[in-house]
Amino acid sequence: MTAGRAGRAEHRAQLWLLAEESVDAEAARYAAALLGADERRRLERLRPPDGRRRFLGARLLCRTVLGELLGRPPAALRFVRGGLGRPELDPNPWGVRFSLSHTQGLIGCLVSGEGPCGLDVERAEAAGPAVRYGQRWLAPAERELLAGLDPVRRARAFTDLWVLKEAYTKALGLGFQHRFDGFRLGPDEHGRVVLEDPSVPPEAAARWRFALLSVPGGYRLAVAVRRDGAADGPWSAPRPRYLDPRTVVAGAGL
């Protein structure tokens, strides 16, 4: 995805990942220098070192990726926080949407010029305990599906449902305000994940595309993209790419 001549971004979504352990002291200093005033205030309120490194890693990732895609210096990008604290580009003549997600050890950034997008990243091994109490958040048909599986498959299926629901509600900008048991995500006859949401007209629900991905380290990722405007034709899930902070810092001449 690149910035087009008319100032709009081309449509194809991109997915970038950053290993949290790769954010060393030099990368953290570089990331801190990119922050705007609001981001610096948020950083100052974070006390645990891991939380600060994760925050800086997420800002390094999104500013680097967006700056490269849009042909702008990473430090020149400006953001506002939406109603639920979600960062958005401002101004945004390119029509670009992005979504950040992180879990222990991994940070992700999904960028799309097609429409709203959402990303969720989780450690698959963490699903075991969550299955016992998390099913109450699922739609009845989803709970019925899990009930018919053995414990191992049930844990995997729960993880998939959970990250898909997180990605979708993040794309909506609503998070848990959009009840997880009020909509359903599941495969159609072709194995493609489809959305059934009573709050969304069928023609609008049909514009959503979903993907599940696994990456090394035991992580499970879900991508949700709504294809608006002129976006049509075949859709394929973005292939994850890793950002190396050492390359970014070296390229900045630091």
Quick take:
The chain has 254 residues and is of the alpha+beta class. It has helices spanning 25-34, 37-45, 49-70, 127-134, 140-147, 151-172, 202-205, 245-251, and strands spanning 14-19, 79-81, 87-89, 97-103, 106-112, 117-123, 184-187, 193-196, 208-215, 219-226, 240-242. It has a 4-stranded mixed beta sheet with strand order 4-5-1-11, with helices on one face. Strands 6-10-9 form a 3-stranded antiparallel beta sheet, covered by helices on one side. A two-stranded antiparallel sheet has the order 2-3.
Overall description:
This protein has helices at residues 25-34, 37-45, 49-70, 127-134, 140-147, 151-172, 202-205, 245-251, and strands spanning 14-19, 79-81, 87-89, 97-103, 106-112, 117-123, 184-187, 193-196, 208-215, 219-226, 240-242. The strands form four sheets. A four-stranded mixed β-sheet has the order 4-5-1-11, covered by helices on one side. It has two domains: 1-113 and 238-254, 4'-phosphopantetheinyl transferase domain (Ribosomal Protein L22, Chain A, Alpha-Beta Complex), CATH 3.90.470.20; 116-226, 4'-phosphopantetheinyl transferase domain (Ribosomal Protein L22, Chain A, Alpha-Beta Complex). The protein is of the alpha+beta class and 254 residues long.
